[in-house]
Amino acid sequence: MPTGRIGEIPLLWEEPTAPGERRLVIWLPGFTSSKEAVHRYLRELAAAGYLALSYDPVDHGERSRTAEGEVFAPDSGAFRDPATGKAYRHFWAILAETADEAPAVIDWAIATLGVAPPMGMGGISMGGNIAVVAAGIDRRIAAVAAGIAEADWLRPGSTIPLSAPNAYVQSCYDRCDPLTNLHRYQHRPAITFQLGADDTLIPPGGAQRFVRALGPTYADSSERIEAVLEEGVGHEFTEGMWQRSLRWFARFV
Question: Do 157 and 207 meet the contact criterion of CB atoms below 8 Å apart?
């Protein structure tokens, strides 16, 4: 499995298993996970014909700040240093900063791996959140598959609300929260949310509100945005969600 690095961003990827047009799909892991944890998905994307790439989000995997790995504090939505107990990274900052890195990753993949737009991007939970934000930053991302992800960072109704932000973290929300930055999606990237109907960590209502709010923008292309709820499923990325994500990329990338 090839690996690389763009500055401090560690990467891994799988080459497509058949020759042909090289299209990139970036697939990112969930909170406290790493790029290695999604290798199975990269292999299957490569088998579907894509150059499949992942990178460690900020403070994850090889970018962890502590020798023992990050510690999730459920009451704060933040990483805590196990030595001091103090939160040093808020979830909103991780989302914003990692999404900001997507254009550099795409530039590198074009120059180094020979891929060409349009691109796809997706992920599980946090990874899906990042992909939605990145599609509002970089128009080369034509399709997003956001598994058990959110579009309303305030997350009303969640069993794990986030802690109060400081000024910097609030600025991350102000510029990146999808629901309050609808202007970033006027180019109509194809976005599917694959959600658990019974998810209490990331309630599906946030994605549903986002889809409804963008209804006028997608009025003549409503097939390009959706929120699909899987009944009887909580915060779990199921095989059905993954297969629907693969079909979404096949349709729009």
Answer: no
